[in-house]
Amino acid sequence: MLKTKLNVLTLRKEPLPTVIFHEPEAIELCSTTPHAKSRTHAGYKVTYLGKVTISGTQFLSGCTESAVVGLVEHRALAQQQGTCPASGSLLEIRPFQVRLHHMDDRGEASVTMDTYQVARIAYCTADHSVKPNIFAWIYREINDDLSFQMDCHAVECESKLEAKKLAHSMMEAFRKTFHSMRSDGRIHKSGSTDDFAEDSSTPEDSTPDDG
């Protein structure tokens, strides 16, 4: 059994926002790959709650809570009114790109797909008081006029553990993406504004592997 604790990662590259992956609790994983359940696409079965634009470029613990509360309440209202779509989604996290497959009513085929570039994800967390099984990420959306806005996206997972696995997978995708970008020279290893700290946790934050 591999026991690991997600570490806080930061990317400082002005004027872009600080990238932070927040996951305070230890999680247990039987393997480093998602559990497949005979799905058309590899990924985690989720319910997409939607997105909301938020302000700011520096994000700390709890910064997604109010946005997630609003999205949860909006979905509950839609369910009461019978306007909530019944189909689910699959969230597929890989280096460089996150894919959200919107499935058909039987959950067998992807009808549409939204993509998110890992390098534009400013923050992600599976730590929400309103519901422990919600995973959210803040994405830097580029507008047609080249300005950008920060959108908070949220999905409801099948369990709290699934949400934490998504946070773990996102952290791994982030590491691989920025390691490749740094190898290609797109991120400098030195420089006060371009530093990428792969592991900024303290020694007591680390949980040793059981093998």
UniProtKB/TrEMBL annotation:
Residues 116-178 form the PID domain. Transmembrane segments: none annotated. The lineage of its organism: Eukaryota, Metazoa, Chordata, Craniata, Vertebrata. GO terms for biological process: negative regulation of D-glucose import; negative regulation of insulin receptor signaling pathway; regulation of cell population proliferation; regulation of mitochondrial membrane potential; regulation of reactive oxygen species metabolic process. InterPro entries: PH-like_dom_sf, PID1, PTB/PI_dom. SUPFAM superfamilies: PH domain-like. This is PTB-containing, cubilin and LRP1-interacting protein isoform X2. One of its GO terms (cellular component) is cytoplasm. Residues 184-211 are annotated as: Disordered. It holds the Pfam family PID_2. SMART domains: PTB. Residues 195-211 have a biased composition (Acidic residues).
